[in-house]
Amino acid sequence: MKSNKLIAAILTIVMILSFCACGNSQQPMNSDDGGKLTSSAEDSQNFATAEIVCKLQPGIYAPDSPLDHFYISLESALEAAFEGRLDLEILPQDSIGDAEIVEQCMMGTADMINIGDISFDIISGTLGWAFLPMMYEDYEDVDAKYFDGWVSEEISACLADMGLVRVGYSEAGFRQVCNNKHVIDSIDDFHGVKLRVAQLSYLVDFYTACGALPVTLSNSEVASGIEQGTIDGQDNYVTAFYNLGTLEMTPYITMLNYLYCANSLCVSQNFWNSLSADDQQLFMDTCMAVSSSELGYARDYEQNLLDEAVSAGTVELCYPDEEFKAALKEAAMTVWETESPKYDEALMERVYEDFGF
Question: What share of the chain is helix, strand, coil (3-state, %, to 5)?
């Protein structure tokens, strides 16, 4: 990526500062926050003396997940980079919806949030063009096009229109498909398969174009739906298969890589304006450095889940061949045609030019 040298330098500085800050303290520790060991007395002192307090509302995430690791790394890196002048307070997980979390950030109840770009699109209706079906082929493609270049700039501009400053990102991954009926290794294999799909037009329409039978259910209903036969499988991220407890219930996973969407790490305009220009730059650089570094952790985590399931004999993986990919692209283009009128015409022309066929 373009800023590799800057990222490497920042991470090196952060590691040095973090090491120096830790010293040889032997204070009593606790782990009430779900895995991160902290000193309660030290945290209280830091919170009381910090010049800058940043409250992060994380929404819901699983313990020991890539998001959990991301938040721990972010807290350590920011507090080290600011040499004790900043305290990142990670608020308790909240079961409220993403729209309410965004509202909290815009109103100042929370200074920082990290939610999926799909959720931002549901709220604003301005981001769906960035993750239409079959836009990105693999993670290398994502790094070059989603996180660098004009797509990233346009996403940041859309979020700025909502009063948010995009300072980083975290991985969600590619959406894949799993089922308990048979291997899906051609477009014809979708026919008659009932798949749980999020209630988003570009997901429902894509699977309909592929010949599947999309069923809109909440995540909490997926496991019971599979058990009762209401659905045969689902569309989701690999980590979601695991977190929902359905990874072993649907042994056939096809790595479609058909839709990629990240999470955007944002701060409120009020919090951003409270920082000096130098602190804004330090804050942005540190968040971006952590974001880039954590991509590898999240991708390794996902691959380990798949490797362990395959080794245990509970999952069979399928990777589409070129013929299957071409058929998926054709199905995707019908969705593009339907979705295009929702977005700026010049923007969609650019999407077609760079990602269409």
Answer: 55, 15, 30
What is the fold, at CATH topology level, of the domain defined by 174-259+321-355? D-Maltodextrin-Binding Protein; domain 2 (3.40.190)
d(CA 194, CA 184): 13
Cβ atoms < 10 Å from Cβ of 141: 14
Dump pLDDT digits (tens) for 194-222.
999 988 999 999 999 999 999 998 888 99
Tokens of 95: 């079961």
Its pTM stands at 0.84
Alpha helices in 220-259 (DSSP H): 222-228, 238-243
φ and ψ at residue 95, rounded to 5 degrees: -85, 5
Distance (Å, whole) CA 176 – CA 305? 14
Query: What is each CA distance from 303 to 255, 306, 307, 308, in whole angstroms?
Result: 12, 5, 6, 9
- For the structural domain made of 4-126+161-172+263-305, what CATH number should be given? 3.40.190.170
Under the banding of pLDDT at 50, 70 and 90, the label for residue 4 is very low
Q: Is the pLDDT of residue 22 over 90?
A: no
| CATH 3.40.190.170 intervals, the chain | 4-126+161-172+263-305, 174-259+321-355
Residue-wise pLDDT tens digits, 299-319: 999 999 999 999 999 999 999
Burial class (CB in 10 A: 0-12, 13-18, 19+), 283: buried
72: closest CA among 58, 86, 52, 53? 58
Burial of 26 (0-12, 13-18, 19+ CB in 10 A): exposed
Which of these ranges, 78-87, 106-115, 188-197, has the smallest mean pLDDT?
106-115
Q: DSSP for 164-182?
A: EEEEEEE---EEEEEESS-
> Residue 176: which of 297, 323, 317, 331 has the closest Cα?
317
170 and 23 in contact (C-beta within 8 Å)? no
